[in-house]
Amino acid sequence: MSKPEKANLDPKNFKPAIVYTIYIAAPPEKVWEALTSAEFSRQYFSGHAVEVDQRIGGAFIMRTPDGALHISGEVIECEPPRKLTVTFNVNWPALVEKLGPTLVTYEIEQTGDAVKLTMLQSHDRDISDDILSGGRTGWPAILSSLKSLLETGNALTIQMQPPERMLAALKEMGIGTP
What DSSP assignment string belongs to 12-44? Predict the structure, then answer.
C-alpha cells in the first residue's frame, strides 16, 4: 500500500485539543459517506452541508442551512474510507488570524461489527479552555447525531448555541462573531 498523500500543511505541528471516539454499527464506507456528503451532513449537522473535494489540496466547505459559507478549509490527508484531515476555518472575522488554523481529523477503523470513529480537533498553538468550550459542546452532539442517523435512520435534533464563555473569550480577544 502506498503512503497517503499530504498537502503542504504538516499535521505533525498540531496537537489535539479535543478528541472524541465513538463506535457506530455501520460499515466504514457508510461512515465516510456521512462525513463527506452534503446530503448526509444536512441530516445530522443541524442542516449544515459539508462539501469535500476528496483530493489532497481539495476544498472543504460547510454551508449553513440557508447556503451561506460557514467553514472553509483544505483537504490535508485523504485515505477513503479510513482517514480525512481538513483545515476547519470558521468564517468569523479575525478568528483564524488570531487563533491560527484548526485541523479536524476523522479516523475510521473497523472493529468487529462496528466502526471506531475518532475525531480530533488539533491546533498549532495553545488555545484556552474558554475558546475550546465551543468544540467541546458541539462535537459530542454532532457525533451522537451522526451515530443515531447511521444506526437508526433518524438524526437527533439538538438545539445548540455557542457557549457564552467562548463568545466572551473571543470578544475579549477582539474577535467579532456573526
Answer: GG-EEEEEEEEEESS-HHHHHHHHH-HHHHHHH
Spatial distance between the Cα atoms of 109 and 115, rounded to a whole number of angstroms: 5
DSSP three-state, residue 53? coil
C-alpha cell of residue 39? 446530503
Helix or strand run (H / E) with residue 108: strand 102-111
Give the bridge partners for 117, in sequence order: 22, 108
Round the average pLDDT of the chain to a whole number and report it. Answer: 90
Q: How many Cα atoms occupy the beta-carbon half-sphere of 64 within 13 Å?
A: 7
Overall average pLDDT of the 85-97 stretch: 83
Q: Are 18 and 120 contacting, i.e. CB atoms less than 8 angstroms apart?
A: yes
- pTM score, two decimals? 0.88
- For 10, residues 6+ apart whose C-beta sits below 8 A from its C-beta are none
For residue 48, give the amino acid letter: H
Cβ atoms within 10 Å, residue 90? 17
d(CA 19, CA 17): 7
DSSP secondary-structure letter at 7? Answer: -
Cell 500543511, residue located: 9
Question: To which H or E segment does residue 43 belong?
Answer: helix 38-44
Beta-bridged to residue 49, according to DSSP, are: 63
CA 9 remoteness from chain centre: 17
